[in-house]
Amino acid sequence: MAPGHVSYGLRAQYGLAVTPDTVVAWERGTATPGTRELTALAGVLWCSPAELLAGATTLREHRIARGWTAADLARRVGLDAGAYTRMEESRRWRGSERQTAALAEALELSPRDLLAATGRDQELAELLRGAVGARWQAYVRPVARMLPMERGPLEAVLQRLHSDYQSRTVATLSWGDASEDTGGPGRDFLDRILEHFWALARD
């Protein structure tokens, strides 16, 4: 379908005044359809919203892909609808450990996708930096609050991460200097910790 056909379908079937230029912008990724527009677009294209959001990364995108309204998802995870909407719009998740687990279950998110969708991947990287450089046991609870992982496997991953970091640092310094960046730990260092953590969590 040409952009003009899509525009006509959105107007005729759903009453949405969307121009062909806007449809082109959606295709190119320079503009993003709203929730109502995305649902209508899926109807015009005879597909599900999930198919249009195959690369979903934000909470909103994951929610729409699963067919949840903001109010329904908020109720499912035990939040006030307004509070949930504010978190979704700000891309900063503030839910409790139980609410986070319920969110991951409702949206069928892997731990890694959950962290990316809730904007907390760098926060996790900072916690992992502390875990590899100090007593990893002290970081089990803070990390567990962020991830829907059972404590036993999580403890095993943090212990292994700590051991790997300590042995590599002593032997080769191959992980780099945590203070190489004058503004704090280097981003490369944090990214390496994060990647290694996810690799261990998969095993």
UniProtKB/TrEMBL annotation:
Q: Which domain of life does the protein's organism represent? A: Bacteria
Domain (HTH cro/C1-type): residue spans on this chain: 18-52, 59-114
Extract the signal peptide range: none
Q: Which InterPro entries match?
A: Cro/C1-type_HTH (IPR001387), Lambda_DNA-bd_dom_sf (IPR010982)
Pfam families given in the database record: HTH_31
> What is the name attached to this protein's record?
Helix-turn-helix domain-containing protein
State the organism named in the record.
Streptomyces zhihengii
